[in-house]
TrEMBL record:
InterPro entries: DNA_primase_Znf_CHC2, DnaG_primase, TOPRIM_DnaG/twinkle, Znf_CHC2. This is Zinc finger CHC2-type domain-containing protein. Residues 25-72 form the Zinc finger CHC2-type domain. GO terms for cellular component: cytoplasm. GO terms for biological process: DNA replication, synthesis of primer. It holds the Pfam family Zn_ribbon_DnaG. It comes from marine sediment metagenome. Keywords: Metal-binding, Zinc, Zinc-finger. GO terms for molecular function: DNA binding; DNA-directed RNA polymerase activity; zinc ion binding.
Amino acid sequence: VLGMLNIRFKEKGDELRAHCMSGTHEDNTPSWFINKNSGMFQCFSCGYRGNLHTLIKELTGQTLYEYLQIDNPDEYMFKAMLTKKKKRIRKIPTKLKITGDILDPHSDKQVMEYLRNRNIDDQFINDFHIKYCNFIVINGTKFRNRILIPIIVDGKILSYDGRTFTDDKPKVLYPKGTSLGTLFNIDNLNFDKELILVEGIMDMVKIYTHITKNVTTCFGINLSNKQIDLLENCQHLLVIPDNDKAGKQFISLLDKHMNYEYKIGFLESKDPGEASVEELKNTIQNAKLSIDYIIEKSGLFQSEEIKWRIK
Ligand SMILES: [Zn+2]
């Protein structure tokens, strides 16, 4: 983005430093800082701040799409808007009413086979308190032969992700009236570090086991307002969508609601569960800000031209 706007900058860790573009003061010692992960900027001299979309609008008088002469933004998957407003809904978690036995997966061969086939090791089972049932009722919802993964917030079980290990329908079941307005494993996530977001719990397994513990899921692609709020608290978000139509919807939904920039890592494989650890590592390494994908895809600015630096 800065290259496109002919802004020279210095790079130091996650921060880029440049001469302030507010036009309100001389800025001989660059005091304007742009965060590489969130795209948010701030001048420590005059307080000029905003995000990359507001910057493009202010410097060019045009939106990103106008500036790049893109008249078919729908094809770009990212529907970046200038101002995004949303309603906030708060839900009070319901208490769970459970009848029946919750069992240890190690006591059933078929359950263990299911888990091992999905590369789930004992640490993953223990860390996420994974159990199973033959038959239980939670809040009136019947669970038959399902792996039970508790969704915990502030140490309390808010809901259960109940997935069949006998190919039953639906694949995943949640108890009636329970709230999924959270991120999986939220009690242990670090919002100050790079946080990786995937579509489902099974997509987390290889990343959690081999790459980083700071990985989460929002239980499918339909984000709630509460989940958007939580994701916006994370300034180093890296999303790895499934490589399918739903994955594209997921990104366009995120882009519509998030005020911060975030990185996206696109997979060659179908989803993070099928990708090798090597592919996942490369995908995380090569992830880019969504806004940079738009500029790149427009073809108007080649990466060689946009390597501006303060000498
Ligand atoms: Zn300034």
